[in-house]
């Protein structure tokens, strides 16, 4: 029989929330301007607004989320034979984050790798984990997503609040810091686990919706060739609003066609939605999609890249939304180069 990966544990870590009002208190008028443009009023953040210092690392957050997932799964850390770690903001270019997490968890030996991606990263990691289980490479995989966006802003605090670039301030207030994890275990039960998935990048002719230009081999260090306001991250909001909903709708439609399914075949939808307009386009297209069945952390954490997916799973578990055998559709998509992943699974806990 074919093997599938079923979720046996979920966990998350979310730091303190900072509200828009907290930013207005520190930054004044510039934060008020950003406030009017944001789709949310709060976000999880590790940054100290009085100093710009960060309380912990990316892998510290991942450790807390992973331990919560391990505890829920009622296994030992050494029972894990692979770690797939997705992040846009690693502790270091090398060593990979998964090896640092392996040490923190006390795992003697395991396979693993990092996936360097934005909002599609966790979905991509789930798809790859499923393939590793299906081919027998691994039997129990820890899939982790962690991002620490606010650390990229500490440099601006050194130059004084009054000199903070407003575009950089927008990104600091837009993104959140958090980590989430799931554990996938091999099963041959056809009523459990991931039964189908797709992933890809379908708009190579469309420019970047967002880009992180500092830290790679082209620009390893901050440079005057790149505007300082773009050092943390540069986004194109117009392209994002136009193309990200298209990617969501087209990829979900493709998944349904490939599997000869309807949207109403699913009981729950783990769909992180970036904005109100994106949500409106989604529900206008899938008219049978009930908003009550969409499981999301909403506006609580800010834009969390794909930490939103495992945190949404964690929320669903805490609220007893999922029942064994429920069909769940998971979507992950990002605006860097319009990557996506769609996963269909049976809840197995």
UniProtKB/TrEMBL annotation:
Biological process terms in GO annotation: fatty acid biosynthetic process; secondary metabolite biosynthetic process
Residue ranges occupied by any Beta-ketoacyl-[acyl-carrier-protein] synthase III C-terminal domain in the UniProt entry: 259-332
Pfam families: ACP_syn_III, ACP_syn_III_C
MF terms in GO: 3-oxoacyl-[acyl-carrier-protein] synthase activity
Beta-ketoacyl-[acyl-carrier-protein] synthase III N-terminal domain segment(s): 113-201
Source organism of the structure: Chlorobaculum thiosulfatiphilum
Protein name listed in UniProt: 3-oxoacyl-ACP synthase III family protein
InterPro entries, alphabetized: ACP_syn_III_C, ACP_syn_III_N, Thiolase-like
Keyword Membrane: no
Keyword entries, A-Z: Acyltransferase, Transferase
């Amino acid at each position: 029989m074919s093997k599938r990966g079923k979720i046996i544990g979920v966990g998350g870590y979310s730091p303190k929330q900072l509200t828009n009002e907290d930013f207005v208190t520190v930054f004044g008028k510039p934060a008020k301007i950003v406030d009017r443009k944001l789709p949310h009023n709060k976000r999880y953040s590790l940054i100290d607004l009085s100093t710009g210092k960060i309380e912990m690392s990316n892998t510290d957050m991942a450790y807390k989320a992973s331990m919560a997932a391990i505890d829920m799964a009622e296994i030992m850390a050494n029972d894990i034979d692979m770690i797939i770690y997705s992040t846009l903001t690693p502790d270091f270019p090398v060593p990979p984050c998964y090896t640092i997490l392996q040490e923190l968890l006390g795992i003697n030996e395991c396979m693993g790798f990092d996936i360097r991606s934005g909002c599609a990263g966790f979905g991509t990691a789930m798809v790859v984990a499923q393939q590793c289980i299906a081919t027998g490479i691994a039997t129990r995989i820890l899939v982790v997503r962690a991002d620490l966006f606010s650390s990229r802003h500490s440099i601006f605090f050194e130059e004084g609040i009054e000199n903070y670039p407003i575009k950089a301030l927008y990104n600091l207030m837009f993104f959140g810091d958090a980590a989430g994890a799931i554990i996938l275990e091999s099963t041959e039960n056809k009523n459990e686990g991931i039964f189908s998935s797709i992933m890809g990048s379908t708009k190579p002719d469309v420019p970047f919706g967002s880009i992180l230009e500092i830290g790679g081999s082209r620009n390893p260090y901050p440079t005057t060739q790149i505007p300082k306001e773009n050092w943390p991250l540069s986004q194109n909001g117009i392209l994002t609003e136009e193309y990200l909903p298209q990617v969501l709708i087209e990829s979900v439609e493709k998944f349904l066609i490939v599997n000869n399914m309807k949207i109403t075949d699913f009981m729950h939808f783990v769909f992180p939605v970036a904005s109100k307009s994106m949500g409106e386009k989604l529900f206008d297209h899938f008219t049978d999609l009930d908003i009550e069945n969409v499981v999301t952390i909403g506006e609580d954490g800010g834009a969390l890249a794909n930490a939103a997916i495992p945190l949404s799973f964690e929320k669903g578990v805490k609220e007893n939304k999922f029942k064994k055998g429920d069909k769940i559709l998971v979507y992950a998509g990002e605006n860097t180069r319009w990557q996506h992943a769609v996963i269909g699974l049976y809840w197995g806990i």
